[in-house]
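Render this sequence as a predicted structure.
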Amino acid sequence: MDQKTGAPVSDRAGSKQLQAGFKEFDIRLAFTGVAAVGVGKGAKRTLEWLSAELKALPHDSTLDQICEALARACAEKVKHLGHRGVL
């Protein structure tokens, strides 16, 4: 749901799944919840945001490092957006 207008945000089948490759393993991430993060022109599809966060990590990251980085990124979004619209 768009936070500003209340209109539904489309989330077609498969749009809440992504894959990322690292040195020692590949991960497949599926999520539920909001399809977009942010409001207005600052809104970004959650899938794109998560994908960018994963791509920014070093190729030799461990699973623990990936989880910690995503947790920090989500916490940072909460600081800016509040609890609405964040995984």
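Summary. The chain has two helices and four strands. The first helix runs from residue 46 to 55.
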